[in-house]
């Protein structure tokens, strides 16, 4: 029997779509936060947080809805991008990776909800984000996008060195925050079984 979405599920999905939109467009107030065509955003933080807080199912649903909302034309992607043409963007792989990032992060925590596991799950989610996103970017530049002069696979990964320290720190913070949120808010009210129900 398929599990039905409750009003709180829809609300939380909408909240994380909004958070992803905000995180994606932080460069609108700090345009210098773009390296090699890759915006340095807070999307990875919120994708990890979605999985850690909402669980694998609802977290991945939230990220899927975010991707679909952008693809139908709502300007929720980085630099207020949107539309189906975004699928050929060199950075679209990162958007796809958010779905898997949230799912895997949530799935790991569902098996063991100790603080170290939250942090490890968040870091594994970050690795997934980087591996999927960077490889998509490389193949995009090689096969259908205009690659910068002298572009190589190594260069693609060198670009990712810039946001990496920030993303590692934020992933750890996401894990800690999600753990504390679970032990305080989720354990004391009607949301106690949120992730299990999802």
Q: What share of residues are in beta strands?
A: under 5%
What is the total number of structural domains? 1
Briefly note the CATH topology name: Arp2/3 complex 21 kDa subunit ARPC3
Helix tally?
8
Name of the level-1 CATH class = Mainly Alpha
User: How many strands?
Assistant: 2
The largest sheet, given as strand count, sense and whether it forms a barrel, is: 2 strands, antiparallel
What is the radius of gyration computed over CA atoms, rounded to a whole number of angstroms? 17 Å
The end-to-end distance, rounded to whole angstroms, is 13 Å
What average pLDDT do the residues reach? 88
What can you see in these coordinates?
Strand 1 and strand 2 form a beta hairpin. The protein has one domain: Arp2/3 complex 21 kDa subunit ARPC3. It is built from eight helices and two strands. Strands 1-2 form a two-stranded antiparallel sheet. It is globular, with a radius of gyration of 17 Å. The model has no long low-confidence stretch (mean pLDDT 88). Helix 1 packs across helix 3 and helix 5 crosses helix 7. With 198 residues, it is mostly helical.
Defining key terms:
single chain; 198 residues; mainly alpha; two-stranded antiparallel sheet
List the helices and strands and how they pair.
Blueprint: H1 7-24, E1 34-35, E2 38-39, H2 43-54, H3 56-71, H4 92-111, H5 115-143, H6 153-161, H7 164-186, H8 194-197
Antiparallel strand pairs: 1-2
């Amino acid at each position: 029997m398929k599990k039905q979405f409750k009003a709180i599920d829809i609300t939380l999905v909408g909240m994380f779509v909004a958070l992803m939109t905000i995180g994606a467009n932080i460069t609108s107030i700090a345009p210098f936060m773009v390296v090699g065509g890759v915006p340095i955003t807070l999307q990875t933080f919120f994708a990890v947080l979605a999985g850690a807080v909402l669980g694998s199912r609802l977290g991945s649903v939230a990220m899927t809805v975010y991707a679909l909302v952008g693809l139908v034309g709502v300007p929720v992607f980085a630099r207020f991008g949107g539309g189906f043409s975004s699928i050929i963007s060199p950075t679209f792989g990162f958007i796809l990776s958010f779905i898997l990032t949230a799912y895997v992060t949530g799935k790991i925590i569902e098996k063991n909800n100790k603080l170290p596991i939250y942090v490890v799950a968040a870091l594994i989610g970050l690795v997934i984000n980087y591996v999927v996103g960077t490889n998509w970017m490389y193949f995009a530049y090689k096969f259908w996008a205009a690659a910068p002069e002298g572009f190589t696979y190594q260069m693609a990964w060198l670009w990712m060195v810039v946001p990496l320290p920030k993303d590692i720190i934020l992933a750890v913070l996401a894990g800690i925050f999600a753990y504390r949120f679970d032990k305080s808010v989720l354990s004391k009210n009607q949301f106690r079984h949120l992730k299990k129900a999802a």
